[in-house]
Write the structure tokens for this entry.
Amino acid sequence: METTVIPFRGLRYNLEKINSIAEVIAPPYDVIKPEERIDLEARHKANIIHLILSQPQADDSEKNNQYTRAATLFQQWISDATLVQDPSPCYYVYDQSFHAPDGKDYTRRALIALIKLEPFENKVILPHEKTHAGPKIDRLNLMRTCHANLSPIFLLYQDPNGDIEQIFQGFTDVQRPMVDCPETFGSTHQLWSLDGPESNREIQNLFSSKPLLIADGHHRYETALAFRDEMSRQIGIDTLEGYDYMMVNLVRMESPGLAVLAIHRLLNDLTAEQINHAIAGLPEEFEVHEIDSLSNLMEKLGTFKGKSPAVGMSTPDNKYRLLIPHTPSAGQLDVTLVQDTIISKLFKIETLADHISYTAYVDDAVAHVKEGPDRVALLMNPTPVEQVLDVAMAGSVMPQKSTYFYPKMATGFVINLLNR
């Protein structure tokens, strides 16, 4: 089936009414902590946080609740020109420059566009993680009242020769960005709009044969599918218009600006028996190499990156171990090895939420172990993007927190009206 990626008339903050775009953007809704939400709410009365994380109140009713209040505020911002819609369909180029936890500097380039929604079985849009019902219900309620994509999801596409990026590179090389935001939420942000009909047709044509992999935003994609089906029943499939599309950030899979970080597993609330059982059982599953320092462990672990499975372990006995499976299966992922063999089989952990947290920072992982005798850290290599794509193309899914595309993309630069 054909992949449909089209330009659109984005709804954007009116820079004549906003002193600085940094005052009104926010991280994605699902990574914002309560104290950060309060700070963002106070930063500006028109910060996007007031829409994406509107808060419930004690006297909420079916007609007056966090979702209806967000919709009322949204319409107010459109009416008073706080938000204005671009006059013609555009693609938007979004650059983030940042220093990553791996010590390197990156500039990641995304194309903000609309994609035509497709069920996963069509293998046009590919998932790689399982989703849970709770977040989808919340986002569906917000979509029902606002009829908009308030933030894009993050997708990857293959383009070995960089043909698509070359088209908008020619534009961004000679045009100043319409948004140039200093470092906010860990990166700088620049935005250009591409409204040339000929170049935009060429971009659309180049995407038509490319499957798209969801990097981040599985819940919101499934929510958009559910809302499209809901609107189809209400207004008819022939009049769906914008409900058949959703806003996305598209990043080239081969881009040197794509930072894919490891997500280390932090085990806690373990019994001494669990830890002793796991350590005693390691030789049956792995070649176990005791390493004299954290730096040496990470260096040796890195030599296996993208080649074969290997895991580092930091334990309360102040030892570092490199674990290499005796008989790795073809195509086995490190995250699957850790989940199935170490966490489930050796530590006998059944309820992940009670015993596991995650970090991208090695120092944080080791500090976690030093905080108590009931803790262990499993140190990982990043999952190569090619392996993620292979899993998705095979129709499989990966364990939770298998990939970390750093950093998160900010919300608030462009909004897509579904009933435009």
